[in-house]
Design goal:
By secondary structure, the chain is mainly alpha-helical. Helix content is 84%, strand content 0%. Helix 1 packs across helix 2, helix 2 runs antiparallel to helix 3 and helix 3 packs antiparallel against helix 4. The longest helix is centred in the middle third of the chain and has 48 residues. The chain starts with a helix and ends with a helix. The model has no long low-confidence stretch (mean pLDDT 76).
C-alpha cells in the first residue's frame, strides 16, 4: 500500500513548518541568552524568574498531592460510616451518608488534574521566560484556582447538608 503523493506532501509540509517553528524559538532563545550573559543584573533577574516559576510549580504540586491524600481520608471516613451502620442499633441514621465515595473520587481526579495542569504551566512559563517575553496568559492559573475553589465548596456543602 503506497501513500498518495498528496498525503505525503502534506505530511512533509507540516513537518517542515513544525521544525521551522521550533528552530525559530531556539534562535530567539539563543539571542536572549547572549543578551543575558552580557549583563549580570539581567542574568540574575532571569534566574529569579526561573526560580519563582519552580516555586509556583512545587506549590501547585503540593496542592494536588494534598487533594489526593484528602480523597483517601474521605474514603476512609466512608469506611467508618459503613462500619457504624453495622454496629449501630439505629442503622437508618447513617443511610444518607453514601455520597462520600463520589466526593472522594472527584477530589482525587481534581488533585491529579491540578498536578498535570501545573506541569503544563511550568513548561509553558519556562519556555516564555527563555524567549524573553514579558506577557503571559493567566488561563492555567485561573483554571487551577477554579478547580481548587470548586473542591472546597463541594466539601463545605457536603458537610453542611449531609452531615
Amino acid at each position: 500500500m503506497e501513500e498518495s503523493p498528496q498525503k505525503n506532501r502534506w505530511f512533509h509540509s507540516l513537518r517542515s513548518q513544525i521544525k521551522n517553528l521550533f528552530a525559530t524559538d531556539r534562535v530567539r532563545e539563543a539571542e536572549v541568552m547572549e543578551q543575558l550573559q552580557s549583563d549580570k543584573n539581567t542574568l540574575f533577574a532571569w534566574q529569579r524568574n526561573h526560580m519563582a516559576n519552580e516555586r509556583t510549580f512545587l506549590a501547585w504540586c503540593r496542592t494536588g498531592i494534598s487533594l489526593i491524600v484528602f480523597s483517601f481520608v474521605i474514603e476512609r471516613f466512608d469506611l467508618l460510616i459503613r462500619e457504624l451502620r453495622y454496629i449501630s442499633p439505629n442503622p437508618e441514621r447513617y443511610l444518607h451518608m453514601d455520597s462520600t465515595r463520589y466526593m472522594a473520587m472527584v477530589v482525587f481526579v481534581l488533585g491529579a488534574f491540578i498536578m498535570i495542569l501545573a506541569g503544563w504551566r511550568f513548561f509553558y512559563m519556562r519556555h516564555r521566560i527563555n524567549l524573553g517575553e514579558s506577557s503571559f496568559t493567566t488561563l492555567p492559573d485561573t483554571f487551577l484556582m477554579i478547580a481548587f475553589s470548586f473542591t472546597l465548596a463541594m466539601i463545605f456543602l457536603l458537610f453542611v447538608f449531609v452531615f
